[in-house]
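**User:**
If convenient, please work through this fold.
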Amino acid sequence: MAQKKSLLVVDGYNVMLATPRYEALLDERGSSAQETAAERAYHLNTDPFYRARLALISDVATFAQGTYEAVIVFDGKGNVNDERPERTHAGVQLVFSETGESADSVIERLVTDAREAGRKVFLVTSDRDIRATAGFGPGEVTRIASASLVHEISQADNVVEEMRRDQVSTRMTLEDRISPEQREKLWKLLGK
């Protein structure tokens, strides 16, 4: 039986609010009581966390790819939408806490269950209380500060951007892409 991947549990709003990478994407506009349905439709989504949440999901999916089973936990009371479905987006499981339940409780439960099942767990949060309580007992839990995860993601972005720039600056002509024999035949055909 194949061993399960390590579990990466991310405290969603903690990471989003702890670093400028996601804070810049927060929409403080939100929705007002005076706003008409047409105005709300024009803005498409009145959840102030929407863009930051999508960016975090994308970043975690890229970071976790092939190495971790990733779960991002969001505090349901911080979400404008009353629905709390568990869903997967880009290979990342998204969990919103239920009304009356904190995201901290969900995180502690996920970490404890995985640890007791013998899985290696990586917990991403800068919340001191969660870092102090989650993961006590048998099993391995590695605690990662929110800023550390974002730093790793930013470093990976820089490497990808550098590779992209290198590719763009390397112009490949037809002559560069064909074998010397084919090049010779082409030159003869063109009369060179």
Q: What stands out?
A: The radius of gyration is 24 Å. The chain has a mean pLDDT of 83. The first helix runs from residue 12 to 18. The domain at 6-147 is CATH 3.40.50 (Rossmann fold).
